[in-house]
Amino acid sequence: MPLTLALIIVALALATWAHFAYWRKRLTLRPELDQLLFARTGDGWRIAVARRRARGTPRSLPVLLCHGLATNRHSMDFAVPGHSLALNLAGRGFDCFALDLRGHGATTAEPGASKVWTLDQYLRQDIPAALDVIREETGSNEVLFVGHSQGALLGLATAALHPERIAGVVAIAPPGQFGTTPALAQLARIGSLGIGGMLRTIARLWAPFGPIWHPHLAELAIRRANVEPEIYRLFLANAAESVNPGVLAHFAHCIKEDRFRSYDDSVDYGAAFTQCHRPALFVSGDRDGLAPPRAVEDTCVRWGGPKRYWSAGPAYGHGDLLIGRRAGLDVHPVVAAWLEERAPFAPAVSIAR
């Protein structure tokens, strides 16, 4: 009997391994990047920045794309035609750079680097390092910043803190009302239980079954009905990431105070929004539980520079603003058109004969 039980356990283990090995091989995205760059921060991180060079006539400004909470750069450059915002923009002449913030994607830590951080390290270390490497590659001191969710907040804060580096911001679903959006508080409470650090593993194990079972918590992050089943599997297997406990603590602090401030309260990022005069486009989805239209509109109203608000309508939630069934036709062109207004085609360089 013990031998039979042992054989059953071994057989189940082998079947489980074979099952997930098959799905991992099938679902792993291998984007055809033009270049994978690494920017070094002052505190020991190598920030990955994936480049999509401009197709056709290049435009005058490069674009930096920044992912949201619990995702990586694949959410901004999904490597599937029709679902990649970065690829769409590159096709319109933009030199695009999608970064992985520390702890995400291809970004790695050097020995001795801190393993706990907050949103402040993203703003003080990661994004400035990415901006510097873009300047080295393109010669441009300014970029157009496109961010989603947390990345949208980081883009707005970077423009407010360093307006000389940011020519304009596209803020897709920024969760601007911390204390009055119940879903944010719910996520912070769940994250504090230690689940945040396991999200990457959970998502990859769950990926084969994602289209079959989609819990309410996941619906807050992405509207399942608006994403094709295979795209959803690919998203879970490639774009989902764990959340650092320091970042969760920072969000919990912002929720408690209902203010977007540094963790030590020395810098009020939200207050700086009203003083920034850079242009910004704010994008929302009517069915977004994490950044509902009222929160995005509130952030838009408080923005100090030229601004425009646009709703993608009732079909869209949060993450599907990037990879939804028709996002490539509905959302991406609106983002591109706004960017094109601020970055005409670069003047042709004449060659002396």
Structure, explained:
Strand 1 (35-40) and strand 2 form a beta hairpin. This protein is of the alpha/beta class. It contains 14 helices and 9 strands. Helix 5 runs antiparallel to helix 9 (245-257).
User: What is the typical, i.e. mean, pLDDT?
Assistant: 91
Shape verdict: globular
How is the main sheet built?
9 strands, mixed
Radius of gyration: 21 Å
Order of helices and strands: HEEEHEEHEHEHHHHHHEHEHHH
Share of β-strand residues: 5-15%
- Assign a percent range to the helix content: 40-55%
- What is the number of strand segments? 9
Task: Write a brief structural summary.
The chain is of the alpha/beta class and 353 residues long. The chain is 41% helix and 14% strand.
What is the fold's blueprint, element by element?
Elements: H1 2-27, E1 35-40, E2 45-52, E3 63-66, H2 85-91, E4 96-100, E5 108-109, H3 119-138, E6 143-148, H4 150-161, E7 166-172, H5 182-191, H6 199-206, H7 216-221, H8 229-238, H9 245-257, H10 269-273, E8 280-284, H11 293-302, E9 307-311, H12 320-323, H13 327-330, H14 332-342
Parallel strand pairs: 3-4, 3-6, 6-7, 7-8, 8-9
Antiparallel strand pairs: 1-2, 2-4, 2-5
Helix pairs in contact: 5-9
Brief descriptors of the model:
353 residues; globular; single chain; alpha/beta; 41% helix; 9-stranded mixed sheet; 9 strands
